[in-house]
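sry for the spam today, last one i promise. struct tokens for design, 272 residues
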């Protein structure tokens, strides 16, 4: 049996399957906006207590504001993780004053006095990571941030950041088709750091209907997406997938994936 929970930073116990809210920020029509709120409200009802968002998720709707509209006052035990240091268009800006401004806006939009997990969205090549993470450490010391995390980092940058402030989570791209962050995941396992894989449902060549993913899905009576998530849960006890969806049906399917047990043979076939 894979563990059902993980404790981030030693004091934030979460169900290992979380929810990534980014896709809800594209809601345009009144019906889509209402659906987004329904999806957010349904997630905690299904036992999800880790919701991930970002200051940069602002397309047609400010994602952080959606979360507060749907869930504030927040249920006890709900952990909200957000990020700063990325502009809406995708360019990186890790200057300390920008990160501070991002954090202040996130606090306001989420209607929080302290953010449980605040992550550097992406290292800025024009700013030493020590400067960016140093500002997150100051925000932590001031009580505006409970824990500090990183996203889109190499092993070298993770190690450098850890000399500045305790890093409790890393959010890197990782899935069945892309395991380029294997070295970072291994460091997280060794140090007890949560690893939040973004884009968790990409399966690449394993999408073949005659391949091992489809075979395992048929045997389990599950969808291929559910098996892909189950594989992540089995891959490491520090793995906290945060699949996103704007569909209530897919949300329930994603949550159900945590109940799928994979054999050693299944895992070996999927990892090959």
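last one done:
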């Amino acid at each position: 049996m894979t563990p059902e929970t993980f404790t981030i930073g030693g004091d934030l116990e979460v169900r290992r399957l979380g929810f990534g809210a980014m896709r809800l920020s594209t809601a345009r029509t009144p019906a889509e906006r209402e659906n987004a709120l329904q999806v957010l409200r349904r997630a905690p009802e299904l036992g999800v207590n880790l919701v991930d968002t970002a200051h940069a998720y602002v397309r047609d709707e400010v994602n952080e504001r959606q979360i507060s509209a749907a869930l504030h006052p927040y249920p006890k035990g709900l952990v909200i993780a957000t990020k700063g240091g990325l502009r809406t268009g995708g360019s990186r800006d890790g200057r300390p004053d920008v990160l501070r401004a991002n954090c202040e806006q996130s606090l306001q939009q989420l209607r929080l006095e302290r953010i449980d997990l605040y992550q550097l969205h992406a290292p800025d090549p024009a700013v030493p990571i020590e400067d960016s993470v140093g500002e997150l450490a100051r925000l932590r010391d001031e009580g505006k941030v409970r824990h500090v995390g990183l996203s889109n980092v190499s092993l070298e940058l993770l190690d450098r950041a850890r000399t500045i402030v305790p890093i409790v989570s890393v959010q890197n791209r990782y899935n069945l088709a892309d395991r380029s962050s294997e070295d970072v995941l291994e460091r997280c396992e060794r140090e007890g750091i949560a690893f939040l894989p973004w884009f968790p449902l990409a399966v690449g060549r394993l999408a073949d209907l005659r391949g091992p993913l489809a075979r395992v899905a048929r045997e389990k009576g599950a969808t291929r997406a559910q098996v892909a998530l189950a594989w992540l849960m089995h891959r490491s006890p520090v793995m906290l997938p945060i699949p996103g969806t704007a569909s209530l049906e897919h949300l329930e399917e994603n949550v159900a994936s945590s109940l799928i047990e994979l054999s050693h043979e299944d895992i070996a076939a999927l990892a090959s």
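The domain at 5-202+236-243 is CATH 3.20.20.100 (TIM Barrel). ok im logging off now
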